[in-house]
Amino acid sequence: MSETWTDLLMADHEMTERVIDAVGRAFETPGGPPKRLVGETVEYFECYVDQCHNRKEEDHLFPLIERLGVPRQGGPLGVMLQEHEESKRLLARFVALGRAYVAGDDSRLEGLKAIFAEYATLLKNHYWKENDILYPMARRVMQPTHAQAVVTGIERVEASAGPDTRQRYYALANRIIAAGRLDDLVAGLEPHVLAAMLNTLPIELSFVDAQDRVRYFSHENLPKIFGRTRGVIGMPVQQCHPEKSVDRVNAILASFKAGQRKVAEFWMDLAGRKVHIRYFAVHGQDGAYLGCLETVQDVTAIQQLTGQRRLLDEVTGV
After folding, report:
1. Could you tell me the fold of the domain covering 5-182?
2. Is residue 89 classed exposed, middle or buried when 0-12, 13-18 and 19+ CB atoms within 10 A define those classes?
């Protein structure tokens, strides 16, 4: 499926928010961030976020939805345009301080840190408003031809900045993220909170490591579709399957390790329930194979869903 304009713009938001957090972390290191990191950060925000991403919206999305009836004054569109102007003002200060710092003026560090924090806060709040308010509003007034016109406009803006613009700047962003040593979001969770979250999911999880040994399963002390005890931890996963299916399990795992497939799925009728089973290849950020995640879910009730029940229906008691 081709990417929609929402996919493209929200991917920019997601990448930029990761850069923001990585740079913010780098500012907390003793002695300040490396000058090369600051230089690359200046380039990313000046050349991609401001001159490319914002242009996609200002040249192609915003004018279109205004023509389709979304007012510029007194609503989200006007607010977004005002925040673009404010972000340009803050970015200009950050760029000036950043270039001075890169040139060797360490006295600019505290000012640089402060202006980046202000700029980052504005962008994060701005992206939230666009993702959750303006973009849904835009989708409601658009026809398919309008949506495709925005995609074409996005492609035109990127092409005007040179070949492979998005790939080049996403690569730059990933270098910044790596240099800032950005933790996964799970790092902010206590182990007992993460365990409670996994045990609350209506899906049973099991993880088999790269050596095919069982390392984890959820819902240990709760009812399970397929019963298991912690005695399986550390066992070869092949020993957890009937002998007649071991060859099939090995073939799936081999295809995962070789990068030939990412998922295998099955479903069956079991005691009046429809059970959906999926195996997913798990890879680290460096692409290395880490193991296999198995999910087991009772989808009987999901199969029976008809119509729609939205969050608003739940809130209003409809």
Report:
1. Four Helix Bundle (Hemerythrin (Met), subunit A) (1.20.120)
2. exposed
